[in-house]
Amino acid sequence: MQFSTLPILIVVIFGFLWFLNRRIHRLGGINASQRNWLVVLLLILLIWGGYVGYQSSEVFFATEDFLDLLPGYWLPYVPVVVTITLTLLIAPLRFGLRKLVDETPRHWLTGIHCLRVLALGTLIKASMGVFPEKFAWFVGGADLLFGLSAIAVTLLVHRGRLTDGFLLVWHLIGALVIVAPVAGLMHVFMQEALFSKLFAFPMVLAPALVVPTFVMLNLLVTWRLLEKRMQRG
Known about the structure:
Number of helices: 10
Order of helices and strands: HHHHHHHHHH
Strand content: under 5%
Largest sheet: none
Distance between the termini: 53 Å
């Protein structure tokens, strides 16, 4: 198994979200029920990531039987569907997510996306011939560019030079740079000889948990800013 930053990324991302949850509760922005539901959501996502990582490490994901299930079409969407379903069904969770956006400094919510520059690793692996090239360039390359933009956007937001309208569009783009190529070009990626490498441990943690979490953070901010704009209108 090669060294990977993905386990570290998971610790940083979910540690960041846990910190935000505790901070907002401590400041009185959410009550205990809302805090607990946010924790439950984080735990469910981590359990999913642990299950996928275990199955991948046991080589099941590398078998033809698994690849015949066309995992590229559904694996990345599992945490998204679970999160959206719980958000729609559980009011305390929905309120807690709203407050998470409202009570967190804007530059923190953009700064976390600077970590997406680590997608550079997929491009390096593709150049070495150990990772699917088209997937690396169309998905990893777009993710890298968005991570680079996050550095500039975070500095400008911190200085108060960007509007909520700009951030709404920027976060929406952050989701689309992943969703568009994954949804539109998966049939192309699946033809690559090294496509199965995407589901090897620890790489599988990227499409199964890390990337969907970044996308959901983009969509969460987009949803809340759009909701507030509609309320003002």
